[in-house]
Each structure stands twice: as structure tokens, then as C-alpha cells.
Amino acid sequence: MITKIPSKLKLSIAVFVLSFLFFLVYTVTDDIILKSPLGQQKAIALSIRLAISISFSTLLASLVFYSVKLIYSSMHSLVTLVQDWGNDDVYEETPVAERNDEIGELVRAFRLKFFQQKELEDAPSQEALGEKTKELSDSIQRAFYRIHLPKIQNLDISLLPRMSGNSNCDYVNVIPSMDGCVGILAGFPNSGVLESAFKARLEGIFSLANETGGIRGEELILKIGKILSKMPVPFLSLSLFYLITKTGELGFVHFQELPAFVYKNGELNSLEKTKARYFDYKAIDLDVKKTVLKMGEYWILVSDRTYSAIGVSHSEFTEQLQNALAGKNLQNSRDLVLNCGRILEKRFGKQILETSALLAVARKQ
Question: Which residues span the membrane (predicted)?
């Protein structure tokens, strides 16, 4: 029964009981002194009563002092615990926390609060972490994505964008080869530091291949395919192609949801696409499909990011693009790419151009 009484009530009851007992003993003692023979002598009785009063007052004062000292000692213990927790000792167990009284309850409350606060400080929010990741990814993309498109004899080439600081945008580039050109369109369904770093490495590979020169287009894309198979990053959408200027031979590998297109005389036709949506790193050799790009025909690649950002299916996007270009007699790759950009901006908003990547290549006399 007594153990269930709170500490603050125990202290009050103890002070009351002891004070009452002191007063009772003092009263009884005073009566005894007054009725005793010594009490008849006023001088002696007064001295004795005064001494007893001082003694009981001292005892009562000592009791109060001891109670106050206990309170201050408890407060000092709490301050010490708080200071220890501030020095990263919040995870250490303490015997005070095991007490079944107000002090123990207060210690546990402090400990829980400090634990929660440290967890919040040590673990940044998912939103803040995502923002930092996006900022870093964008900075990587901004650093490498500066395409300097070379002039290649008897080829008409345009691409979009030339510069990009948005990590959601796919990488697109075209470089000359010994017999024509080699192009790439690569990206991922999600943006991140790893994805941006991979695209930066692709830029490095193409820059090195551009400086090397003297390699046939077909041989070059096979070499690039072998290099990519040694650094697997999942969910890579990839289109690689080569074009021989004299014969119009076009060889390509296509790992995308959107098909490759051929545009001629206001008509946009889609080529049969592979079943694999993402690049197969386990393949020993690339399965290069070949066709012939005739004079007046444009080879077009559009990144999967374009239709996925809109929120429509690839088949619906293909149909809308075909209808929008139907009947338009565009004379060069630049007009074709810009016209596609205007169509996307008009139908789906300017924001779609921040993540879209387009490429158009044609032979010319």
C-alpha cells in the first residue's frame, strides 16, 4: 500500500508526521517539566524549556534541510544526465531510469525526447535527401552535357538538346566515323547520381572515339557495346547506330520502348522494335539490325523519357506524333527536330522539352 504512494506525497506525509511527533514530544516534555519539582523553579524551568525548544527546532530545521538537499540532489542528477546525453551518451543505460517514481519517470521522458531529437538530427528527411541527390545528379549532367556536333560530309544531322542540366534528360550524340557517322541515344527511367555518372562516362567514350578516328561505324558500335557490357547499370535504354554515307547502309541496336522512325515526304513510319526494353549486358555480341536509308529519308530517334513524362502509352504517343507530322514537307533535319519540339511544347507544355532528347539524320548530295 505504502509503495503505491507517489514520492511527492511520501515526502509531504513524512514531513507532516515528523513535525507532528516533534510537536507532540515537545508538548509532553514541556508539561512534564512544568509539573516536576524543577519546574517550580522559574529560572531553571525557563532554561530547560528554552534548551528543549532549540533542540526540537534544530531537529526540525535539519529535517527540512535534508528534504531540500534530496530535491537539489535529484535535480543535479538530472542535469548531469542531460549533460551526458548531450555528449552522445543518450544510448547508455542508467540505474536512475529504472526507478519507479517521479524521478525515474522524468529521466525516461528526458531520455526518450533526447533520443528522438538525435534521430531527427542524424537522419535527414527523405525529401531533403532526395533534393540533395537531384542537385548532385543535375550538377554532374550540367558538367558533361555540352554536345559539339561536328560537320560530317554529305550528312544532315540535328539533335536536341545540345546542353542540359537536367538529370532526367537522356544523352544523345553523333560523331564521325571512317565511313559515315555513329550515333547514340541513352538514358534511364529514373534519375540519380549513378545514372548521371554513367551518362558522363558515355560522353567520355564518345569523345575518345571522336578523337581516335579511322574506325568503321559498324566496328565502332560493336566496340562500344563490349565496353558497356563491362559496366552494367540496370534499366539502361539504349539505341546505337551507324550510317555509311555512300551506300546508305544503316545498322542499329535498339533497346527502347519507343521504336525508331523513318520520315519521308510528310510521312512518319516506325520500324519494328526489339522485345527487350533495356540493354542486355549478358549478350556476348550485339545483334545489329541493318537497313538502307535512302536519299530524302530521315532516321529519327526519340527518347523514352519523352512519352513517359507525358503519361501516355508509347503507342498513343507514336500515333500522335505521326498525325502531327503528316503532310508536312520538311526539307532538312534542323526543321524536322525543331518541328517535333514545337509539337511537344504545344501539346504537352514547355516542361516536356527539359527531359526530351531527339535525333534526326539524313543523307544528302
Answer: 43-66
